[in-house]
């Protein structure tokens, strides 16, 4: 009689689980002596305290360092180079602002946008190298965001597989940022791809969803340097909207190519950015093996006060 009560209780419990939508795997027979049985993972019903929809884990990918080096991108174990030295000069003032040690406090200093006036100036090359250089620091982690959604270059540079990314987060409120972020075998570097193609991809950068995402990035990942490879400023208006949320902007200028009028026009569109840095790319330097970065003197702060003084 006691055994019958146990069976009835078990049957009742099984019926409750089925009504709750929990699928139960069939019970495997007992193994023969000496036989090894590999069993499937135990099925656990979702907990009300921790819904399955919030249990996100970013993917991990292996970057091919030889491929990256062929694109003239820094790698963690590469020998010291002229490019690495120039990038150290460039990143130091940016990191001082992130740490709150600059000339003046900078809101959202950890949001750094790398852009150019027109295409072909080397902004994606700069963004990738700057991210790798900062990832080699002892005290900083980096998220590199491919925000040039119309013409993404980071998949080619890093050999990234097609995957969801920034655009998917913007169009689908159920897609969490951590679901599409790619962790890499460079310990302190993660990458957010541009994501699935979308008819209105560039317009999404100027949307309220993007503004909300940037606010989330600045606060949720406040301990991380977030670098945006953005569209060129004079090609789309979306880049200007993106710049208005940035703490720091690096404007890449290609030597012997970008005109003075293009540079002036691009700078005029960055009025809302607290910190702007002009960076000269591919300046003639025989010691640089064909590549060079010149640290521009257009670096400065916008001091927000009643008079709108800039210095």
Q: How does this model look, in words?
A:
The chain is an alpha/beta fold and 311 residues long. The chain has one domain: P-loop containing nucleotide triphosphate hydrolases (Rossmann fold, 3-Layer(aba) Sandwich), CATH 3.40.50. The protein contains eleven helices and ten strands. Strands 1, 2, 3, 4, 5, 6, 7, 8, 9 and 10 form a ten-stranded mixed beta sheet that branches. α3 (82-98) crosses α4. The chain starts with a helix and ends in a 10-residue tail after the last strand. The model is unreliable at 21-56 and 288-311 (pLDDT under 50).
Q: How is the secondary structure organized here?
A:
Layout: H1 2-19, E1 59-61, H2 65-70, H3 82-98, E2 111-116, H4 123-135, E3 141-146, H5 154-158, H6 166-171, H7 177-180, E4 182-184, E5 189-192, H8 201-204, H9 208-220, E6 224-229, H10 238-243, E7 248-254, H11 260-268, E8 275-281, E9 293-295, E10 300-301
Parallel strand pairs: 1-4, 2-6, 2-7, 3-5, 3-6, 7-8
Antiparallel strand pairs: 4-5, 8-9, 8-10
Helix pairs in contact: 3-4
CATH-scheme architecture: 3-Layer(aba) Sandwich
The number of helical runs is 11
* CATH hierarchy, class: Alpha Beta
How many domains, in number, for the residues?
1
Q: Give the amount of beta strand, in percent.
A: 15-25%
> Major sheet, described briefly?
10 strands, mixed
The mean pLDDT is 78
Strand element count: 10
What fold name goes in the CATH topology slot? Rossmann fold
At the fourth level of CATH, the homologous superfamily is: P-loop containing nucleotide triphosphate hydrolases
C-alpha-based Rg, rounded: 25 Å
Distance between the termini: 90 Å
Low-confidence stretches are 21-56, 288-311
Helix content: 25-40%
Q: What order do the helices and strands follow? A: HEHHEHEHHHEEHHEHEHEEE
Global outline: globular
| Structural classification | alpha/beta
């Amino acid at each position: 009689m006691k055994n019958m009560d146990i069976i009835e209780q078990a049957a009742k419990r099984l019926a409750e689980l089925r009504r709750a939508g929990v699928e139960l795997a069939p019970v495997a027979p007992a193994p023969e002596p000496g036989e090894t049985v590999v069993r499937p993972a135990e099925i656990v019903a979702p907990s009300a305290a921790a819904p399955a929809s919030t249990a996100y884990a970013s993917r991990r990918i292996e970057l091919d360092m030889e491929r990256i080096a062929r694109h003239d991108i820094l790698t963690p174990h590469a020998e010291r180079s002229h490019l690495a030295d120039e990038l150290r000069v460039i990143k130091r003032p940016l990191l001082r602002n992130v740490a709150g040690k600059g000339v003046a406090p900078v809101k959202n200093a950890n949001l750094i946008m790398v852009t150019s006036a027109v295409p072909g100036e080397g902004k994606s090359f700069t963004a990738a190298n700057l991210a790798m250089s900062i990832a080699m620091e002892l005290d900083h982690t980096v998220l590199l965001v491919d925000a040039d959604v119309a013409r993404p270059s980071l998949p080619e540079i890093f050999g990234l597989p097609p995957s969801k990314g920034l655009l998917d987060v913007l169009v689908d409120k159920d897609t969490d940022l951590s679901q599409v972020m790619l962790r890499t075998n460079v310990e302190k570097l993660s990458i957010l791809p541009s994501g699935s193609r979308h008819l209105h991809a560039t317009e999404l950068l100027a949307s309220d969803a993007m503004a909300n995402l940037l606010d989330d990035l600045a606060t949720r990942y406040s301990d991380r340097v977030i670098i945006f490879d953005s569209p060129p400023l004079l090609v789309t208006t979306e880049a200007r909207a993106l710049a208005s949320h940035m703490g720091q902007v690096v404007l890449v200028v290609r030597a012997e190519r970008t005109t003075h009028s293009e540079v002036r026009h691009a700078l005029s569109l960055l009025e809302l950015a607290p910190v702007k840095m002009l960076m000269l790319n591919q300046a003639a330097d025989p010691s640089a093996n064909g590549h060079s970065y010149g640290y521009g003197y257009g670096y400065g702060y916008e001091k927000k006060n009643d008079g709108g003084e800039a210095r």
